[in-house]
Amino acid sequence: MNLYGLLASRFPAEGEAPCLILPDGRRLSYAELESQSARYGALLVEAGLKPGDRVAAQVEKSAEALLLYLGCLRAGCVFLPLNPAYTRGEVVYFLNDAKPGLFVCAPERLEEAQELAWACRLPLVHDLGARGEGSLAAAAAQMPARFATVERADGDLASIVYTSGTTGRSKGAMLTHRNLAANARVLHRYWGFRPGDVLLHMLPTFHVHGLFVATHCALLNGSPVLFEPKFDAARALRLMRAATVFMGVPTYYVRLLQEKGLTREAVAHMRLFISGSAPLLPETFAEFRERTGHTLLERYGMTEGGMFTSNPLEGERRIGTVGFPLPGTEVRVVDDLDKPRPAGEIGHIQVRGQNSSSVFAGYWQLPDKTKEEFTPDGFFRTGDMGRFDAEGYLAIVGRNKDLIITGGLNVYPKEIEEAIDALPGVAESAVIGLPHPDFGEAVTAVVVRRQGGEGVSAEDIIAELKGRIAGFKVPKAVHFVDDLPRNAMGKVQKNLLRQRFAG
Ligand code: AMP
Prior knowledge:
Layout: H1 3-9, E1 18-21, E2 27-29, H2 30-46, E3 54-58, H3 63-75, E4 78-81, H4 88-98, E5 102-105, H5 110-119, E6 125-127, H6 135-141, E7 157-162, E8 172-176, H7 177-190, E9 199-201, H8 208-220, E10 225-227, H9 233-239, E11 245-248, H10 250-257, E12 272-275, H11 282-292, E13 297-302, E14 306-310, E15 324-325, E16 329-334, E17 347-353, H12 367-373, E18 380-388, E19 394-399, E20 404-406, E21 409-411, H13 413-421, E22 426-436, E23 440-449, H14 458-468, E24 477-481, H15 494-501
Parallel strand pairs: 1-10, 3-4, 3-5, 5-6, 9-10, 9-11, 11-12, 12-13, 23-24
Antiparallel strand pairs: 1-2, 7-8, 13-14, 14-15, 16-17, 17-18, 18-19, 20-21, 22-23
Helix pairs in contact: 2-3, 2-6, 7-8, 10-11
The chain binds adenosine monophosphate.
Protein backbone atom coordinates (compact mmCIF):
# COMPACT_ATOMS: atom_id res chain seq x y z
CA MET A 1 0.00 0.00 0.00
CA ASN A 2 1.40 3.35 -1.03
CA LEU A 3 0.07 6.42 0.82
CA TYR A 4 -0.23 8.24 -2.50
CA GLY A 5 -2.35 5.36 -3.80
CA LEU A 6 -4.72 5.81 -0.88
CA LEU A 7 -5.01 9.56 -1.44
CA ALA A 8 -5.46 9.15 -5.20
CA SER A 9 -8.18 6.54 -4.67
CA ARG A 10 -10.29 9.37 -3.21
CA PHE A 11 -9.54 12.05 -5.81
CA PRO A 12 -12.74 13.34 -7.41
CA ALA A 13 -13.93 11.41 -10.47
CA GLU A 14 -14.22 14.76 -12.21
CA GLY A 15 -10.50 15.36 -12.93
CA GLU A 16 -11.02 19.06 -13.50
CA ALA A 17 -12.09 19.52 -9.87
CA PRO A 18 -9.81 22.13 -8.31
CA CYS A 19 -7.12 20.91 -5.93
CA LEU A 20 -4.67 23.74 -5.23
CA ILE A 21 -5.84 27.33 -5.53
CA LEU A 22 -2.80 29.57 -5.36
CA PRO A 23 -2.49 33.24 -4.39
CA ASP A 24 -1.33 34.24 -7.89
CA GLY A 25 -4.60 32.93 -9.32
CA ARG A 26 -3.09 29.69 -10.63
CA ARG A 27 -5.22 26.59 -10.12
CA LEU A 28 -4.12 23.01 -10.18
CA SER A 29 -6.86 20.46 -10.74
CA TYR A 30 -6.81 16.96 -9.27
CA ALA A 31 -5.97 15.62 -12.74
CA GLU A 32 -3.00 17.97 -12.83
CA LEU A 33 -1.91 16.93 -9.34
CA GLU A 34 -1.82 13.37 -10.66
CA SER A 35 0.06 14.17 -13.88
CA GLN A 36 2.46 16.65 -12.30
CA SER A 37 3.36 14.45 -9.37
CA ALA A 38 3.95 11.70 -11.95
CA ARG A 39 6.60 13.90 -13.55
CA TYR A 40 8.36 14.35 -10.21
CA GLY A 41 8.21 10.61 -9.51
CA ALA A 42 9.65 9.89 -12.95
CA LEU A 43 12.38 12.47 -12.43
CA LEU A 44 13.52 10.78 -9.22
CA VAL A 45 13.68 7.39 -10.92
CA GLU A 46 15.55 8.83 -13.88
CA ALA A 47 18.04 10.46 -11.51
CA GLY A 48 18.82 6.99 -10.20
CA LEU A 49 17.00 7.18 -6.88
CA LYS A 50 15.66 3.88 -5.62
CA PRO A 51 12.79 3.18 -3.24
CA GLY A 52 14.01 3.92 0.27
CA ASP A 53 16.43 6.66 -0.86
CA ARG A 54 15.98 9.98 0.89
CA VAL A 55 15.07 13.27 -0.77
CA ALA A 56 15.83 16.33 1.38
CA ALA A 57 14.00 19.56 0.58
CA GLN A 58 14.84 22.89 2.17
CA VAL A 59 12.54 25.07 0.11
CA GLU A 60 9.80 27.63 0.51
CA LYS A 61 6.24 26.38 0.55
CA SER A 62 4.91 26.10 -3.01
CA ALA A 63 2.72 23.93 -5.19
CA GLU A 64 5.88 22.46 -6.73
CA ALA A 65 7.27 21.56 -3.30
CA LEU A 66 4.06 19.67 -2.60
CA LEU A 67 4.32 17.93 -5.98
CA LEU A 68 7.86 16.90 -5.07
CA TYR A 69 6.56 15.36 -1.84
CA LEU A 70 3.86 13.44 -3.72
CA GLY A 71 6.36 12.40 -6.40
CA CYS A 72 8.60 11.04 -3.64
CA LEU A 73 5.78 8.97 -2.24
CA ARG A 74 4.97 7.65 -5.70
CA ALA A 75 8.58 6.65 -6.38
CA GLY A 76 8.91 5.06 -2.94
CA CYS A 77 11.51 7.63 -1.87
CA VAL A 78 11.61 9.01 1.65
CA PHE A 79 10.78 12.70 1.96
CA LEU A 80 12.86 14.77 4.36
CA PRO A 81 11.43 18.27 4.83
CA LEU A 82 13.70 20.94 6.31
CA ASN A 83 12.75 24.32 7.69
CA PRO A 84 13.99 27.01 5.24
CA ALA A 85 15.15 29.02 8.26
CA TYR A 86 17.88 26.49 9.08
CA THR A 87 21.38 27.87 8.63
CA ARG A 88 24.20 26.13 6.83
CA GLY A 89 25.57 24.57 10.03
CA GLU A 90 22.17 23.13 10.86
CA VAL A 91 21.62 21.73 7.38
CA VAL A 92 25.00 19.96 7.35
CA TYR A 93 23.91 17.94 10.35
CA PHE A 94 20.75 16.69 8.65
CA LEU A 95 22.47 15.94 5.35
CA ASN A 96 25.25 13.97 7.02
CA ASP A 97 22.76 12.04 9.09
CA ALA A 98 20.27 11.20 6.34
CA LYS A 99 22.59 11.04 3.30
CA PRO A 100 19.88 11.95 0.78
CA GLY A 101 20.21 10.96 -2.87
CA LEU A 102 18.82 14.37 -3.82
CA PHE A 103 18.99 17.68 -1.98
CA VAL A 104 16.59 20.38 -3.16
CA CYS A 105 17.45 23.91 -2.00
CA ALA A 106 16.21 27.46 -2.53
CA PRO A 107 17.69 29.17 -5.64
CA GLU A 108 19.44 31.83 -3.55
CA ARG A 109 21.28 29.10 -1.64
CA LEU A 110 22.29 26.97 -4.62
CA GLU A 111 25.99 27.70 -4.35
CA GLU A 112 26.03 26.88 -0.65
CA ALA A 113 24.03 23.69 -1.31
CA GLN A 114 26.49 22.57 -3.97
CA GLU A 115 29.39 23.06 -1.56
CA LEU A 116 27.51 21.14 1.12
CA ALA A 117 26.68 18.35 -1.30
CA TRP A 118 30.35 18.01 -2.13
CA ALA A 119 31.35 18.03 1.55
CA CYS A 120 28.62 15.56 2.53
CA ARG A 121 29.12 13.44 -0.63
CA LEU A 122 25.61 13.85 -1.96
CA PRO A 123 25.13 12.88 -5.59
CA LEU A 124 22.58 15.45 -6.76
CA VAL A 125 21.35 18.98 -6.04
CA HIS A 126 18.43 20.87 -7.60
CA ASP A 127 16.94 24.23 -6.73
CA LEU A 128 13.31 25.20 -6.39
CA GLY A 129 11.96 28.67 -5.69
CA ALA A 130 8.75 29.90 -4.12
CA ARG A 131 7.21 30.49 -7.57
CA GLY A 132 8.34 27.15 -8.95
CA GLU A 133 11.48 28.54 -10.60
CA GLY A 134 14.77 26.64 -10.61
CA SER A 135 16.19 23.45 -12.07
CA LEU A 136 13.92 20.96 -10.31
CA ALA A 137 10.60 22.01 -11.84
CA ALA A 138 12.29 22.59 -15.21
CA ALA A 139 13.66 19.04 -15.19
CA ALA A 140 10.32 17.60 -14.03
CA ALA A 141 8.56 19.37 -16.90
CA GLN A 142 10.57 17.23 -19.33
CA MET A 143 9.31 14.00 -17.80
CA PRO A 144 6.30 11.92 -18.85
CA ALA A 145 2.98 12.75 -17.24
CA ARG A 146 2.27 9.13 -16.39
CA PHE A 147 3.97 7.17 -13.66
CA ALA A 148 3.09 3.88 -12.08
CA THR A 149 3.12 4.53 -8.33
CA VAL A 150 5.37 1.88 -6.77
CA GLU A 151 3.93 -0.55 -4.28
CA ARG A 152 5.05 -0.19 -0.72
CA ALA A 153 4.83 -2.55 2.21
CA ASP A 154 3.37 -1.36 5.50
CA GLY A 155 6.73 -0.87 7.19
CA ASP A 156 8.31 1.08 4.32
CA LEU A 157 9.25 4.65 5.10
CA ALA A 158 7.42 7.57 3.54
CA SER A 159 9.17 10.36 5.40
CA ILE A 160 11.80 11.21 7.97
CA VAL A 161 11.02 14.33 9.95
CA TYR A 162 13.73 15.68 12.19
CA THR A 163 12.80 16.95 15.59
CA SER A 164 14.17 20.48 15.54
CA GLY A 165 17.74 21.18 16.51
CA THR A 166 21.09 19.55 15.96
CA THR A 167 21.89 18.45 19.48
CA GLY A 168 19.85 17.27 22.40
CA ARG A 169 16.80 15.49 21.12
CA SER A 170 17.39 16.03 17.43
CA LYS A 171 16.51 12.76 15.80
CA GLY A 172 14.94 11.72 12.54
CA ALA A 173 11.48 10.31 13.24
CA MET A 174 10.79 7.56 10.70
CA LEU A 175 7.21 7.61 9.46
CA THR A 176 5.92 4.74 7.37
CA HIS A 177 3.31 4.75 4.63
CA ARG A 178 1.12 2.88 7.08
CA ASN A 179 1.60 5.47 9.87
CA LEU A 180 0.64 8.37 7.65
CA ALA A 181 -2.21 6.55 5.95
CA ALA A 182 -3.72 5.41 9.26
CA ASN A 183 -3.56 8.90 10.75
CA ALA A 184 -4.97 10.52 7.61
CA ARG A 185 -7.93 8.13 7.52
CA VAL A 186 -8.74 8.58 11.20
CA LEU A 187 -8.54 12.38 11.16
CA HIS A 188 -10.55 12.65 7.97
CA ARG A 189 -13.36 10.71 9.61
CA TYR A 190 -13.03 12.16 13.13
CA TRP A 191 -13.20 15.74 11.94
CA GLY A 192 -16.11 15.00 9.64
CA PHE A 193 -14.64 16.03 6.30
CA ARG A 194 -17.49 16.18 3.81
CA PRO A 195 -18.40 17.25 0.27
CA GLY A 196 -18.16 21.01 -0.09
CA ASP A 197 -15.26 21.40 2.33
CA VAL A 198 -12.54 23.87 1.37
CA LEU A 199 -9.33 23.94 3.39
CA LEU A 200 -7.53 27.20 4.07
CA HIS A 201 -3.89 26.06 4.28
CA MET A 202 -1.51 28.61 5.81
CA LEU A 203 0.76 26.27 7.78
CA PRO A 204 4.37 25.60 6.81
CA THR A 205 4.96 22.33 4.93
CA PHE A 206 8.21 21.38 6.66
CA HIS A 207 6.28 20.18 9.73
CA VAL A 208 3.80 17.34 10.30
CA HIS A 209 0.94 19.74 10.97
CA GLY A 210 0.97 21.40 7.55
CA LEU A 211 2.48 18.64 5.43
CA PHE A 212 0.57 15.65 6.75
CA VAL A 213 -2.37 16.54 8.98
CA ALA A 214 -3.82 19.37 6.91
CA THR A 215 -2.81 18.24 3.42
CA HIS A 216 -3.75 14.58 3.77
CA CYS A 217 -7.21 15.38 5.17
CA ALA A 218 -7.96 17.67 2.23
CA LEU A 219 -6.59 15.32 -0.46
CA LEU A 220 -8.39 12.36 1.06
CA ASN A 221 -11.54 14.41 0.77
CA GLY A 222 -10.84 15.53 -2.80
CA SER A 223 -11.29 19.10 -1.56
CA PRO A 224 -10.01 22.38 -2.94
CA VAL A 225 -7.16 23.80 -0.89
CA LEU A 226 -6.48 27.53 -0.66
CA PHE A 227 -2.74 26.97 -0.58
CA GLU A 228 -1.08 30.06 0.86
CA PRO A 229 2.65 30.61 1.33
CA LYS A 230 2.34 31.60 4.96
CA PHE A 231 0.00 32.72 7.70
CA ASP A 232 -1.34 36.26 7.39
CA ALA A 233 -4.22 37.15 9.71
CA ALA A 234 -5.85 39.81 7.53
CA ARG A 235 -5.64 37.65 4.41
CA ALA A 236 -6.92 34.63 6.35
CA LEU A 237 -10.05 36.58 7.20
CA ARG A 238 -10.64 37.45 3.56
CA LEU A 239 -10.11 33.86 2.41
CA MET A 240 -12.32 32.42 5.14
CA ARG A 241 -15.27 33.76 3.21
CA ALA A 242 -14.62 30.96 0.72
CA ALA A 243 -13.24 28.26 3.07
CA THR A 244 -14.78 25.85 5.56
CA VAL A 245 -11.85 24.41 7.52
CA PHE A 246 -8.78 26.07 9.01
CA MET A 247 -5.93 24.49 10.95
CA GLY A 248 -3.50 26.58 12.93
CA VAL A 249 -1.07 26.79 15.81
CA PRO A 250 -2.26 28.83 18.82
CA THR A 251 -0.20 31.84 17.70
CA TYR A 252 -2.40 32.11 14.58
CA TYR A 253 -5.53 32.32 16.73
CA VAL A 254 -3.94 34.94 18.97
CA ARG A 255 -3.18 37.00 15.86
CA LEU A 256 -6.63 36.49 14.38
CA LEU A 257 -8.07 37.84 17.62
CA GLN A 258 -6.02 41.01 17.13
CA GLU A 259 -7.89 41.66 13.85
CA LYS A 260 -10.89 43.95 14.20
CA GLY A 261 -12.41 42.16 11.24
CA LEU A 262 -12.72 38.87 13.15
CA THR A 263 -16.48 38.79 13.57
CA ARG A 264 -19.22 36.19 13.38
CA GLU A 265 -20.08 37.46 9.97
CA ALA A 266 -16.48 37.17 8.68
CA VAL A 267 -16.34 33.46 9.56
CA ALA A 268 -19.95 32.60 8.77
CA HIS A 269 -18.82 30.31 5.93
CA MET A 270 -16.44 28.35 8.19
CA ARG A 271 -17.31 24.93 9.61
CA LEU A 272 -14.28 24.06 11.71
CA PHE A 273 -11.24 25.64 13.35
CA ILE A 274 -8.57 23.23 14.63
CA SER A 275 -5.70 24.14 16.94
CA GLY A 276 -2.59 22.22 17.91
CA SER A 277 1.21 21.84 18.01
CA ALA A 278 1.45 23.96 21.17
CA PRO A 279 -0.69 24.69 24.22
CA LEU A 280 -3.79 26.78 23.54
CA LEU A 281 -4.44 29.29 26.32
CA PRO A 282 -7.92 29.10 27.87
CA GLU A 283 -8.25 32.87 27.23
CA THR A 284 -7.71 32.37 23.51
CA PHE A 285 -10.26 29.54 23.45
CA ALA A 286 -12.85 31.62 25.32
CA GLU A 287 -12.27 34.86 23.44
CA PHE A 288 -12.44 33.12 20.07
CA ARG A 289 -15.77 31.57 20.99
CA GLU A 290 -17.13 34.89 22.12
CA ARG A 291 -16.00 36.76 19.02
CA THR A 292 -16.92 34.17 16.40
CA GLY A 293 -19.40 31.75 17.93
CA HIS A 294 -16.96 28.96 16.96
CA THR A 295 -15.44 26.59 19.51
CA LEU A 296 -11.85 25.79 18.63
CA LEU A 297 -11.21 22.08 18.33
CA GLU A 298 -7.93 21.33 20.09
CA ARG A 299 -5.95 18.20 19.31
CA TYR A 300 -2.61 16.79 20.44
CA GLY A 301 0.15 14.98 18.65
CA MET A 302 3.76 15.09 17.68
CA THR A 303 6.20 14.37 14.91
CA GLU A 304 6.62 10.85 16.23
CA GLY A 305 3.32 9.55 14.96
CA GLY A 306 0.99 12.36 13.99
CA MET A 307 -2.11 12.94 16.04
CA PHE A 308 -2.83 11.01 19.23
CA THR A 309 -5.89 12.71 20.75
CA SER A 310 -8.57 15.13 19.66
CA ASN A 311 -11.58 16.89 21.01
CA PRO A 312 -14.75 15.60 19.36
CA LEU A 313 -16.47 17.15 16.38
CA GLU A 314 -19.88 16.56 17.94
CA GLY A 315 -20.24 16.90 21.68
CA GLU A 316 -18.30 19.02 24.11
CA ARG A 317 -14.92 20.42 23.11
CA ARG A 318 -13.59 20.82 26.59
CA ILE A 319 -11.53 23.90 27.37
CA GLY A 320 -8.00 23.17 28.57
CA THR A 321 -8.03 19.63 27.20
CA VAL A 322 -6.87 17.91 24.04
CA GLY A 323 -9.82 15.52 24.00
CA PHE A 324 -9.94 11.74 23.69
CA PRO A 325 -7.50 9.16 22.29
CA LEU A 326 -8.17 8.81 18.56
CA PRO A 327 -9.50 5.47 17.31
CA GLY A 328 -6.57 3.07 16.90
CA THR A 329 -4.37 4.89 19.40
CA GLU A 330 -4.03 3.95 23.06
CA VAL A 331 -3.02 6.72 25.43
CA ARG A 332 -2.11 6.21 29.06
CA VAL A 333 -0.89 8.38 31.91
CA VAL A 334 1.69 6.60 34.07
CA ASP A 335 3.97 7.08 37.07
CA ASP A 336 7.79 6.94 36.98
CA LEU A 337 7.63 3.14 36.86
CA ASP A 338 5.29 3.10 33.84
CA LYS A 339 2.34 2.07 36.04
CA PRO A 340 -0.99 3.61 34.91
CA ARG A 341 -2.33 6.35 37.16
CA PRO A 342 -6.02 6.83 37.88
CA ALA A 343 -8.09 9.62 36.33
CA GLY A 344 -7.43 12.97 37.95
CA GLU A 345 -3.78 12.26 38.64
CA ILE A 346 -0.86 13.71 36.74
CA GLY A 347 1.72 11.50 35.08
CA HIS A 348 3.76 10.82 31.95
CA ILE A 349 1.78 10.52 28.74
CA GLN A 350 2.53 7.38 26.72
CA VAL A 351 0.99 6.27 23.44
CA ARG A 352 0.75 3.04 21.47
CA GLY A 353 -0.68 2.50 18.00
CA GLN A 354 -2.84 -0.55 17.44
CA ASN A 355 -1.14 -2.83 14.89
CA SER A 356 1.72 -0.31 14.91
CA SER A 357 -0.58 2.00 12.97
CA SER A 358 -0.13 5.57 14.06
CA VAL A 359 2.97 5.65 16.26
CA PHE A 360 6.24 6.03 14.34
CA ALA A 361 8.75 3.33 13.43
CA GLY A 362 11.64 4.69 15.53
CA TYR A 363 14.51 7.12 15.09
CA TRP A 364 16.65 7.00 11.97
CA GLN A 365 19.82 4.99 12.70
CA LEU A 366 19.35 5.28 16.46
CA PRO A 367 18.17 1.83 17.61
CA ASP A 368 19.31 2.38 21.20
CA LYS A 369 17.61 5.75 21.49
CA THR A 370 14.47 4.25 19.96
CA LYS A 371 14.50 1.43 22.51
CA GLU A 372 14.88 3.90 25.37
CA GLU A 373 11.86 5.87 24.23
CA PHE A 374 9.55 2.84 24.21
CA THR A 375 8.36 0.86 27.22
CA PRO A 376 8.78 -2.93 27.18
CA ASP A 377 5.09 -3.25 26.28
CA GLY A 378 5.42 -0.96 23.27
CA PHE A 379 4.24 2.44 24.50
CA PHE A 380 6.10 5.52 23.26
CA ARG A 381 7.21 7.95 25.97
CA THR A 382 6.02 11.31 24.65
CA GLY A 383 7.87 13.45 27.21
CA ASP A 384 4.62 15.28 27.92
CA MET A 385 2.88 15.29 31.29
CA GLY A 386 -0.88 15.07 31.55
CA ARG A 387 -4.00 14.00 33.33
CA PHE A 388 -7.25 12.32 32.28
CA ASP A 389 -10.43 13.72 33.78
CA ALA A 390 -13.36 11.57 34.88
CA GLU A 391 -14.94 11.72 31.40
CA GLY A 392 -11.74 10.67 29.66
CA TYR A 393 -10.61 14.04 28.32
CA LEU A 394 -6.82 14.39 28.41
CA ALA A 395 -5.22 17.63 29.61
CA ILE A 396 -1.56 18.40 28.90
CA VAL A 397 -0.11 19.95 32.03
CA GLY A 398 3.54 20.32 31.08
CA ARG A 399 6.60 18.64 29.67
CA ASN A 400 9.34 16.63 31.29
CA LYS A 401 11.48 17.06 28.22
CA ASP A 402 13.57 20.17 27.94
CA LEU A 403 11.70 21.68 25.02
CA ILE A 404 10.44 25.15 24.19
CA ILE A 405 7.60 25.63 21.69
CA THR A 406 7.61 29.11 20.20
CA GLY A 407 5.01 30.02 17.59
CA GLY A 408 4.38 26.29 17.16
CA LEU A 409 8.05 25.52 16.38
CA ASN A 410 10.23 23.41 18.64
CA VAL A 411 13.49 24.64 20.14
CA TYR A 412 15.76 22.37 22.15
CA PRO A 413 17.49 24.51 24.79
CA LYS A 414 20.65 22.43 24.81
CA GLU A 415 21.46 23.43 21.26
CA ILE A 416 21.12 27.15 22.05
CA GLU A 417 23.07 26.78 25.29
CA GLU A 418 25.97 25.17 23.43
CA ALA A 419 25.99 28.00 20.90
CA ILE A 420 25.97 30.65 23.65
CA ASP A 421 28.59 28.89 25.76
CA ALA A 422 30.96 28.91 22.80
CA LEU A 423 30.89 32.72 22.61
CA PRO A 424 33.81 34.67 24.06
CA GLY A 425 33.14 36.15 27.48
CA VAL A 426 30.48 33.56 28.38
CA ALA A 427 31.03 31.05 31.17
CA GLU A 428 27.74 29.19 30.94
CA SER A 429 24.10 29.61 30.12
CA ALA A 430 20.64 28.18 30.57
CA VAL A 431 17.91 28.63 27.99
CA ILE A 432 14.27 28.60 29.08
CA GLY A 433 10.84 29.31 27.63
CA LEU A 434 8.85 32.14 29.20
CA PRO A 435 5.15 32.82 28.62
CA HIS A 436 4.67 35.12 25.64
CA PRO A 437 1.31 36.50 24.48
CA ASP A 438 1.98 35.92 20.79
CA PHE A 439 4.46 33.05 20.55
CA GLY A 440 3.14 31.06 23.51
CA GLU A 441 6.69 30.72 24.79
CA ALA A 442 9.61 33.07 24.16
CA VAL A 443 13.14 31.64 23.97
CA THR A 444 15.04 33.35 26.81
CA ALA A 445 18.70 32.99 27.74
CA VAL A 446 20.14 33.32 31.23
CA VAL A 447 23.88 33.84 30.99
CA VAL A 448 26.81 33.81 33.41
CA ARG A 449 29.70 35.93 32.15
CA ARG A 450 33.28 34.67 32.32
CA GLN A 451 35.85 36.69 34.23
CA GLY A 452 36.90 39.44 31.87
CA GLY A 453 33.65 39.08 29.94
CA GLU A 454 32.00 42.08 31.62
CA GLY A 455 31.72 43.84 28.26
CA VAL A 456 29.49 41.13 26.70
CA SER A 457 25.98 42.48 26.20
CA ALA A 458 22.63 40.92 25.37
CA GLU A 459 22.81 42.57 21.93
CA ASP A 460 26.23 40.98 21.27
CA ILE A 461 24.92 37.55 22.08
CA ILE A 462 21.79 37.92 19.98
CA ALA A 463 23.76 39.32 17.03
CA GLU A 464 26.29 36.46 17.18
CA LEU A 465 23.59 33.79 17.32
CA LYS A 466 21.68 35.20 14.36
CA GLY A 467 24.27 33.97 11.88
CA ARG A 468 24.60 30.56 13.49
CA ILE A 469 21.11 29.26 14.21
CA ALA A 470 17.71 29.68 12.64
CA GLY A 471 15.99 32.96 13.59
CA PHE A 472 13.12 31.36 15.52
CA LYS A 473 15.64 29.79 17.92
CA VAL A 474 17.48 33.04 18.74
CA PRO A 475 16.59 34.25 22.26
CA LYS A 476 14.15 37.15 22.44
CA ALA A 477 15.85 38.28 25.64
CA VAL A 478 19.12 37.65 27.48
CA HIS A 479 19.46 38.04 31.24
CA PHE A 480 22.74 38.01 33.12
CA VAL A 481 23.23 36.33 36.53
CA ASP A 482 26.24 35.61 38.74
CA ASP A 483 25.42 31.89 39.08
CA LEU A 484 22.87 29.45 37.77
CA PRO A 485 20.77 27.81 40.51
CA ARG A 486 21.53 24.08 40.74
CA ASN A 487 20.07 21.15 42.65
CA ALA A 488 22.04 18.63 44.71
CA MET A 489 22.79 16.65 41.55
CA GLY A 490 24.26 19.73 39.92
CA LYS A 491 21.34 20.07 37.47
CA VAL A 492 20.32 23.62 36.61
CA GLN A 493 16.94 24.38 38.21
CA LYS A 494 15.19 25.87 35.23
CA ASN A 495 11.91 26.09 37.14
CA LEU A 496 13.54 28.65 39.46
CA LEU A 497 14.82 30.64 36.49
CA ARG A 498 11.36 30.56 34.90
CA GLN A 499 9.81 31.84 38.14
CA ARG A 500 12.39 34.57 38.48
CA PHE A 501 12.24 35.92 34.94
CA ALA A 502 8.58 35.38 34.02
CA GLY A 503 6.84 38.70 33.61
P1 AMP B 1 6.02 18.50 17.21
O1 AMP B 1 6.73 17.21 17.18
O2 AMP B 1 6.78 19.63 16.65
O3 AMP B 1 4.63 18.38 16.63
O4 AMP B 1 5.83 18.88 18.75
C1 AMP B 1 5.18 17.98 19.58
C2 AMP B 1 5.00 18.56 20.94
O5 AMP B 1 4.16 19.71 20.86
C3 AMP B 1 4.27 17.62 21.87
O6 AMP B 1 5.13 16.66 22.44
C4 AMP B 1 3.71 18.58 22.90
O7 AMP B 1 4.69 18.93 23.86
C5 AMP B 1 3.38 19.80 22.05
N1 AMP B 1 1.97 19.85 21.67
C6 AMP B 1 1.38 19.48 20.52
N2 AMP B 1 0.05 19.72 20.55
C7 AMP B 1 -0.22 20.27 21.76
C8 AMP B 1 -1.39 20.75 22.41
N3 AMP B 1 -2.58 20.74 21.81
N4 AMP B 1 -1.26 21.25 23.66
C9 AMP B 1 -0.06 21.27 24.28
N5 AMP B 1 1.08 20.85 23.72
C10 AMP B 1 1.01 20.35 22.48
